[in-house]
Design a protein that fits this description.
13 strands, Spore Coat Polysaccharide Biosynthesis Protein SpsA, Chain A, single chain, two-stranded parallel ribbon, 40% helix, 324 residues, alpha/beta
């Protein structure tokens, strides 16, 4: 009888322990492990320096930069990065910046830098994956969109929409190309930096896609927020038809921005910074997963002339996303 009671106690303790592990691992783990940060002063937090590893290639004086945000360095990633060297017609003059939130293994750093012919730079941006808008409580708020942790994907959206343009480490660059770690240049590319500069454009866009209210409840709230902002701030949208067409029947258009080229000065303009800060203050990124893709599309509809936006499809540049 005593042994039976002991077994019951052990089973009960195991169940309780398993429930705690499940809760902290799969449900609301965030504040069990870290303390969230709040600050509007990005420069005071961005203390990490851009660094190279090993016998890096000679430094580049180019004002252009290719950036990729990674979770880890893998063989597949290196193969895709090698395709940039193979297919992008810049004679290896554009540096490649690898932004990471977890410190890579030295063996992976060495393997990558040995195989890439252009200068490879690294920057640790991990602190920004613990930085939230003032007034938002990531501990008590439940997330409706979980990828690689409770808030990681949404913090990634906020990084590309807002924080990228405030990083002091990137002040010297005029144009930045973003590629995701699962992007692939599948054939020969012209030097898009030369083209965007020649056309005096502010953005090189990927193809147009849509976000669906059915899949992401709260997406359509962005329509009211956008038009309220336009009215309140007396904005005269540069592409009024593009703005009107952005919102359909429970859909919002976006630029599929796993590839994009941005003129950094444009996104640092005072009126655009005001728009970005206004959207950020709604916490819609965290409540409804408003993506940087739809927010980028709306930003360009509001503030960029039609001739200032170039499109990859018009140039027939071969590219794929999530293809292996």
């Amino acid at each position: 009888m005593v042994r039976h009671i002991q077994l019951v106690k052990i089973c009960f303790a195991t169940v309780v322990f398993g429930a705690i592990v499940f809760y902290t691992t799969f449900w609301e783990p965030y504040c069990f492990f870290v303390n969230p940060l709040y600050s509007n002063d990005i420069s005071s937090l961005a203390t990490s320096k851009i660094y190279t590893y090993g016998s890096s290639h000679s430094s580049s004086n180019s004002k252009n930069l290719i950036t990729i945000l990674i979770s880890r360095i893998s063989s597949k990633l290196i193969e895709r990065l090698e395709l940039i060297d193979l297919n992008f017609a810049d004679n290896f003059s554009t540096s490649l910046l690898i932004m990471h939130s977890n410190n890579p293994y030295e063996s992976d750093l060495l393997r990558l830098t040995k195989r890439i012919r252009r200068q490879v730079l690294f920057l640790n941006i991990g602190i920004f994956f613990n930085l939230f808008p003032i007034g938002f409580d990531p501990c008590k708020t439940k997330t409706s969109y979980r990828v690689r942790g409770k808030w990681n994907y949404l913090l990634m959206i906020r990084f590309w929409f807002k924080i990228l343009f405030q990083l002091p480490q990137l002040k010297e660059y005029e144009y930045i190309m973003r590629l995701d770690d699962d992007s692939k240049l599948t054939g020969k590319w012209m030097n898009v930096f030369d083209e965007i500069r020649r056309k005096n454009a502010v953005y090189f866009a990927n193809n147009v896609d849509i976000d669906l209210e059915k899949q992401l409840p709260g997406t359509m709230n962005l329509k009211r927020v956008t038009f309220d902002y336009v009215k309140k701030n007396d904005i005269k949208p540069k592409q009024i038809e593009m703005l009107r067409n952005a919102f359909g029947n429970n859909t919002v258009l976006n630029y599929y921005n796993n590839f994009e080229v941005m003129k950094m000065e444009f996104f640092r303009r005072e009126e655009i910074r005001h728009w970005i800060e206004s959207i950020d203050s709604t916490n819609g990124i965290f409540y409804y997963r408003w993506g940087d893709a739809i927010l980028r599309y709306l930003t360009l509809a509001l503030f960029a002339e039609q001739h200032e936006v170039l499109h990859r499809l018009d140039y027939n540049l071969p590219y794929c996303h999530k293809c292996w």
